[in-house]
User: Fold alpha-glucosidase from Melipona bicolor.
Amino acid sequence: MLRLTILTCFLLIVASSAAVNPNWYKNAVVYQIYPRSFKDSNGDGIGDLNGITSKLEHVADIGADAFWLSPIYKSPQVDFGYDISNFTDIEPTYGTLADFDRLVAKAKSLGLKVIMDFVPNHSSHEHPWFKKSIQRIKPYDEFYVWRNAKIINGTRHPPNNWLSNFQGSAWQWNDVRKQYYLHQFAAGQPDLNYRNPTLRQEMTKVLTFWMNRGVSGFRIDAINHMYEDIHFRDEPSANRTDIPKTDYDSLVHIYTKDQNETYEVLKSWRKLMDDHSARTKTDPKMILTEAYASHDLTVKYYNSGSTVPFNFMFITDLHNSSNAMDFKRLIDRWMKAVPNGKVANWVVGNHDNHRVASRFGRSRADEISMIAMTLPGIAVIYNGDEIGMEDRNFTYAETVDPAGCNSGPARYQLRSRDPERTPYQWDNTTSAGFSTNRKTWLPVHSNYKTLNLKRQKGEYYNHYQIFKILRSMKRRPVIERGTSKVEVYGNRILCITRSLGNDTVIVMTNPSNRPAAVNISSRELPPVLIVYAANVDSTLRPGTLVVTNSLFVPEYSSILFTSLNIYWSDHNV
Ligand code: NOJ
Assistant:
């Protein structure tokens, strides 16, 4: 009997540990869902959890391994969810905790992991902690960053020159507490004080709450804003004469960003998550860290436990007029910086930046995904980019994003993030199939009649079909673990080669307006390759045979070539 029990226990341990996949994230595709704009299930014009649940088949269909939900917590929506008034409840406009549980269960049944947005830097001004902090009720009195006014000639001034990301002073006077509080974003987003141990403890409880509800990781918002200089020193001027003094970029943020303590807190959260995974015998949690920081300070997050220190190079460093050499230099730099045992990541777009099709131009909409999905590591895709959605132009009167509104009518277009947040274009019916309501929280892009998922599903060749091809290619061992080489030909053609045994996959891009013929033949490459996919506007079509000693690359093209064996095995030739 005892032997039987021991055997059963042994089998149970083996069975549960066999189910754990420690490497699940290493070649993953992470899909960002912006909940307000994904799918509205109740006709109020705002996306919601049941809407997302009803569309999870799409997320599975495009081959995502995990999806990251921008904040769905209870929030007055000053910054559309990044201002949280209850870290452990759902915003009623989006649904309930029961809806969330159903979403997680369905995701699980489809093999999708759920990643929550975790916003540690600030809460909403409506959070009960903030209300108690105003009243100096312990322990909440120290949960936020409060400072006395500076009195100059009898007049009250903010304690220093720090600026908010959304324009103007980062300090807001509170008449009850008779002090200023810090807000690095909107005034409705008071900064939390990480020098307070009780606050730190509360935030670990938040992480545990969501892990217990089945989430597989967190995207950590604005992580490099968490700590500030203990002496509250003025920040130096960036000496910009082209922008107003109230603009965030007019200062160099040496005292409000990237402080060393941030990396230590992250380590403690990594441990918390690892312990949770070990205890519950579940896959390792993914941590994605959002820090717009220098390259060195970004990759430093790897060593504090970040799985994906967001690599924003396609957003912040490369643009429509970057040349092939710029791409090569930045790709090589990231690849070199990835520590042993960690993986690279490539962010194509997000809700804070113009859409990839608008940044690089319509004809190059597929190019960045092609590069991101062919390089080793994790690709991060913003919802809608898989069908080539484009920014919509907004008037100032239509603008709702605080970053845009606070910049005023002359400068809102430089800052507003509304253009990339318009509703997902599912089909050509009312409001692009996003909502039954004609009026949606942001207007639908007028191109939805022709640019929508349903249409692309029914056609032979378009952004969606290319994306699906890229996804299935990414699952191949040659992409998962093949060698990589990044080269530039004739100064203008970028060539990324992945090889493993007889398998070769090459991505070539020609961002210029002239076609090129390049000779890439070498002993390691097969002499003949085949076009597996090309960007939608390219004149080259899948199935075309090419010779490596005179490879024709049309203008504005991005082409995925493979060795013949890959093409034939996938097309049953
Ligand atoms: C980064 C988020 O992505 C952005 O949307 C938000 O406004 C700020 N952090 C503040 O939370």
